[in-house]
Specification:
By secondary structure, this protein is an alpha+beta fold. The protein has one domain. The chain contains three helices and seven strands, in the order αβββββαββα. Strands 1, 2, 3, 4, 5, 6 and 7 form a seven-stranded antiparallel beta sheet that branches.
């Protein structure tokens, strides 16, 4: 007869379990990007910006990246199409679309925080801005 003990301390169990190195491939998720439109105080530019990390620019031909232990690339599990659905305090003009995420990924209740992300479509927002940024980021219409 063998003895079986169940620990109620999850961190002890986590320390003993071997990491199996699970790989899921890429995940398609949803997010918003901020557009800097020209105004009296801002000159504007031709890049999409992170909504919350104001200084982060998403470059057209390079994946976004971040350390998931600090920030990472945030995205949502379900489609977001408007500021109301975005649910965070966001200022300015936003465009909404899909992002392919990969690398180290942390899953949250509403979505993900990933090591890498690349814009794969821009789906909702002001039509003229969608057209402009689809062209700049080489995305389908």
């Amino acid at each position: 007869m063998s003895a079986f003990f169940l620990s109620t301390n999850g961190s002890e169990l986590a320390k003993r379990l071997k990491h199996e190195g699970i790989r899921t491939g890429e995940i398609i998720a949803y997010r918003a990007w901020r557009v800097i439109v020209p105004s009296l105080y801002w000159s504007g530019d031709d890049f999409l910006h992170s909504v919350q990390m104001r200084d982060y620019i998403w470059l057209p031909d390079k994946p976004a990246s971040g350390d998931v232990k600090t920030h990472g690339v945030y995205s949502f599990r379900h489609t977001i199409r408007s500021m109301g659905e975005y649910g965070y305090n966001a200022r300015g003009v936003l465009l909404f679309g899909k992002v392919k995420i990969w690398g180290e990924i942390v899953e949250h209740e509403a979505g993900y925080r990933s090591q890498f992300g690349k814009i794969i479509s821009l789906d909702h927002g002001a039509p003229k801005l969608l057209e402009k940024f689809r062209r700049i980021y080489h995305l389908p219409n």
